[in-house]
Design a protein that fits this description.
32% of the residues lie in helices and 20% in strands. By secondary structure, the protein is α+β, with helices and mostly antiparallel strands. It has helices spanning 43-46, 74-101, 126-133, 165-176, 181-190, 199-202, and strands at residues 9-18, 21-22, 30-31, 33-38, 56-60, 103-106, 112-123. It is globular, with a radius of gyration of 20 Å. A hairpin with a 7-residue loop joins strand 2 and strand 3 (30-31).
Amino acid sequence: VKSKLPEDGKPLAFILYSDKIKLSTFGSAKAYPIVARLANLPVKIRNSNNTMGGGQIVGWLPIIKESEKDRNKPGFVNFKNAVWHESFYKLLESLITYSKTGFWFKCSDDVVCLLFPIVLILSADYEEQCVMALIRGLQSNFPCPICLIPKDQLSKLQGYPARDPAQSQATVSSARDASNVKERERILKEYSLHNVDVSYIISV
């Protein structure tokens, strides 16, 4: 990252974590916070509960209610994923301009730095990773959000190519050009993808 910045530029690296949580012990109400931690800080500080340097909630994602008739229907699954990525894009919007131009900031040591914000890590459990990567989950042909390992080879930890964002986008574009829904689904299932745009590719 540093090699791509101006000589006096410094990365301001964020770790973003998202997961659904219950709002009370006895209730059923849930929320979907996004927590940000500053990767530039030492682990002891950024992983603390301290208000100075610890994780901070920077946004909330909507939770789409799902009825029995909607469960596992491709159109509704795509809708939920699209809402997640559109909402996540709103968070990224505040960083897009500064990630390209940088901004000057006077730090606590009185040194003025040119900072370029980047999202270094997206951290989540498997369910959220599937939404982030827009893949079809554990029962799909390629259930890993990182690489293209077939579902019947999951015990093998190496030897398979990583998922390529450009290839995924090309697959989605090809599916959208298909002459009918059946053909579109066939193309998408080849790589276990959903017909939804990825927010952090759009924002680049």
